[in-house]
Design a protein that fits this description.
- Helices cover about 25% and strands about 30% of the residues.
- It is of the alpha/beta class.
- The protein has a single domain (about 1-250), classed as Ribonuclease Z/Hydroxyacylglutathione hydrolase-like (Metallo-beta-lactamase, Chain A), CATH 3.60.15.
- Strand 3 (about 30-35), helix 1 (about 40-45) and strand 4 (about 55-60) form a beta-alpha-beta unit.
- Helix 7 (about 200-210) packs parallel to helix 8 (about 230-235).
- The longest helix is centred in the C-terminal third of the chain and has 11 residues, at about 200-210.
């Protein structure tokens, strides 16, 4: 069984109900983390997930709401006497932050860290993680994950921050589940365009055009306390959509 934990479903300003972005994909006993915003490990403990079990951390870009939970998470891994290698998939402007915690670096947590580029991605016997370009400020990436179990398979895409763009549609075409940011609704589309974020409608159009199975909306701004309007806007063009919330868990039978 595969479990998908939404640890942080909020945007750049965390709230008590929505922490900064972080998603954990659990395959067997291994945890694959996507983004690591402020408070990620608090949500991990609430969900019953151990930092020692994290095999890979994939970071979409260097904005603080996506990375500021990583240093304390690495500290906790060391405190729990982790010895196994941690893989970090991240763009170059995140490497310096991670390298400070590498063995032989400025700090030594007692376990090795290997940094991989999004282009290189990550592959093991259970799954593959491949980066694709997104359309946000600075260098930004999304990740496609493909899990195989014999003749059965499951695929998902996580966009990080992005405005709707063709590279996301092309890279995520036909996946079972698309996790797409939805920072705004259409009434704030001008602001979304300025900061290169998506509206709920824009994310739904991407899901429709990519032919995905389901759409989960994340990176919800604290201005939208009630997700009803977000959901209604997305459903204008794509029916199979949910607005994620913190500690929501999706189970995938495979």
């Amino acid at each position: 069984m595969i479990k998908l934990y939404f640890l942080g479903s909020g945007g750049s300003v965390p709230t008590a109900k929505r922490f900064a972005p972080s998603i954990a994909l659990v395959v067997d006993s291994d945890i694959y983390l996507f983004d690591c915003g402020e408070g990620s490990q608090i949500r991990m403990y609430e969900a019953g997930l151990s930092p020692v079990k994290v095999r890979v951390v994939s970071i979409t870009h260097s904005h603080g709401d996506h990375i500021y939970g990583l240093p304390p998470l690495l500290e906790s891994m060391g405190s729990h006497d982790r010895s196994s290698e941690l893989m970090v998939v991240a763009p170059k402007d995140v490497w310096e932050l991670v390298s400070r915690y590498n063995v032989g670096g400025e700090r030594d947590q007692g376990f090795p860290i290997r940094i991989l580029s999004p282009e290189e991605g990550y592959v093991d016997l259970k799954l593959s993680i491949k980066g694709f370009r997104t359309c946000h400020l600075g260098e930004s990436w999304g990740y496609r994950v493909d899990v195989s179990r014999g003749k059965k398979s499951f695929s998902l895409c996580y966009t990080g921050d992005t405005e709707p763009c063709s590279s996301v549609i092309d890279s995520c075409r036909g996946v079972d589940l698309l996790i797409h940011e939805s920072t705004y609704v259409e009434s704030e589309s001008r602001e979304a365009l300025e900061y290169k974020h998506s509206t709920a409608l824009g994310a739904a159009i991407v899901a429709r055009d990519a032919g995905v199975g389901e759409l989960y909306l994340v990176h919800i701004s604290p201005r939208y306390r009630d997700p009803t309007g977000i959901l209604a806007e997305a459903r204008r063009v794509f029916d199979r959509v949910r607005v994620a919330h913190d500690l929501m868990v999706t189970y995938i039978m495979l």
